[in-house]
Amino acid sequence: MTAYRTEKDSLGSFKVPADAWYGIQTARAVANFPISGRMPDTDFIRAHVQIKLAAAIANCQPDWLDATQRDAIVTACERILAGELLDQFVVDRFQAGAGTSHNMNSNEVIANLANVALGGEKGQYAPIHPNDHVNMGQSTNDTIPTAIRLAVLAKLPRLLAATEHMASAFDAIAERERDTVKSGRTHLQDAVPTTIGREFAAYAWTLRRAASSLAATRPLLCETGLGGSAAGTGLNTSPGYAQSVAAELAKLTGEPIRVGHLVAQMQSMFDLQTLSSAIRGLTLEVTRIANDLRLLASGPRTGLGEITLPAVQPGSSIMPGKVNPVMFEMLNQVCYQVLGQDAAVGYMTQAGQLELNVMMPALGSALFDAMDWLTNAMNAATDMNLKGLVVNRKRCDQFIHDSVALATLLNPTIGYARAAEIAKESELSGRPVRDIVTAHGIMSMDAFNALVLQAAHGEGSGGGGG
Length: 466
Prior knowledge:
The protein is mainly alpha-helical and 466 residues long. It has three domains: 18-136, Fumarase/aspartase (N-terminal domain) (Fumarase C, Chain B, domain 1, Orthogonal Bundle); 143-393, Up-down Bundle (Fumarase C, Chain A, domain 2), CATH 1.20.200; 403-456, Orthogonal Bundle (Ribonucleotide Reductase Protein R1, domain 1). The protein contains 17 helices and eight strands. Helix 11 runs antiparallel to helix 12 (326-349). The chain is elongated. The N and C termini lie far apart (68 Å).
């Protein structure tokens, strides 16, 4: 049977598991919010503890926090940041508005660690009190939005790295297949020649363009309202606290943390919505590219089959030998979920209500999920499939010369009307445009092949590199 200790707060007495490092307010939240079964994001836990550590240093001044209290709090925070006791952060992601329950979870764990280190007992809260000392000069109003910012700042380099990882893989294929001519397609119909190189280099370029928009959110995320305390008033903060705690956080995180508008940064989730929008932009491009790759790999005999993706698992429980593009199917599914998280962030951004946004716990969770899921999915798809992608050059060559669209290349030589006649003849007879051109003496087969390659590379047409 579980042993309990009894603690008291302003609502009365409540049982807390005897071995828990958290306290009564956390225990109440666990009882109140058995919602998703999902505990706090690890980057978010760490970010919130970093705030508590920075606050203890900033508050160590006459008539505020003494050196013994500061050191005990700092040591407790450092233990958590080193990976200890992360299982003591137990409040469900869907909890009281603004995140008061998580704030108290941090305050209680840190206070109990500090007190035991000083010779006290769990649940006694002397000489370190969760509210009076660990939470000194702070409020849920300013610590939670700041912790969300720090958490996404920790995740941002990973997502950017995953994007670059995928872009680099596309670049490698583009360079390898620079001269692999294939049929372009518009409206899902045959179009003028291009190359695998140009097609895949464009994927890489687009991913990097989306990543640049994502990276551009970093300065916004570094601007916090920490020090605003309740409702951005700075109530009960020590002299110079806002600037001091920002400087300490900058040291801890390596990010250029600075003080923003103390009221606005609690009311408004604009910066986080801007980040979410940039994630959405990247996600839309990733899912478009994943769809393209699945289409290019379709068949392999009755579809396009221009590329082959590595087989990572059997594709069917009934059809022997079937292999599906599962990694990019997974990537599509993740992208659709990420788009849903962005929609949720948008709804929660506008649902703040006056001096702080009460939707912050779920808003933060949606961002954390979006960033982690997309990072992991892009890395998995790149490593398990994209790096092993094989271009079926014979298939590409077959399609390009079966395409009636090659008649377009004749426009400058024989004019649109005559080229249309060649196209019609090819369509009716089933003969390749190249054979018809040669038969009519318009140009030699070698000359026509060179024309196709030149067009595929965009040479002389202002078509750009790749």
